[in-house]
Specification:
This protein is mainly α. The protein has seven helices and no strands. The chain is elongated and about 55 Å long.
Length: 146
């Protein structure tokens, strides 16, 4: 019998801290390895001037990239603070001229860095890997995988 509460806890923990769902389910070594891999990937991306994405009405793929960033849980908040100096998920409209200009300048400054594309790819990869870890924790929790 599957304990749905335990599965839900594992998935939430996996979102809050990469690898924590595996750790909770008794896969301690895997959990610690996954934590290390994702945290190093994420901070390497930020160090390479990568950025987290903002959803933008005219760019439908920006919603997917933002979702990949949000999959990092609290690490996403660190990325948003590092990138934009505030917690922001949607690119501001031009009606809020001051914030629009500030976010545009911060984004341009990162894009001008030679390593920006690599860094952003690292940040997105960390988020996508964590989505896979959440799904893996779910599969382990329901007994589909050992």
């Amino acid at each position: 019998m599957v304990d749905s509460r335990k599965v839900a806890i594992a998935c939430v923990l996996a979102w809050l801290l990469p690898g924590a769902g595996h750790f909770y389910l008794g896969k301690r070594v895997k959990g610690m390895l996954f934590l290390g891999i994702i945290v190093v990937t994420f901070f390497t991306g930020l160090g390479l001037q990568g950025r987290v994405y903002l959803a933008s009405a005219g760019k439908p793929l920006s919603y997917l990239a933002t979702f990949a960033n949000v999959a990092l849980g609290p690490l996403d908040l660190i990325g948003r603070e590092a990138t934009y100096s505030r917690i922001l998920y949607v690119f501001p409209s031009e009606s809020d001229r001051a914030m629009y200009q500030d976010i545009l300048e911060r984004t341009r400054a990162r894009i001008l860095a030679v390593t920006h594309e690599y860094g952003t790819t690292f940040v997105l990869t960390a988020g996508l890997m964590n989505i896979l870890l959440i799904l893996d924790a779910f599969d382990i929790g329901i007994g589909r995988k050992r």
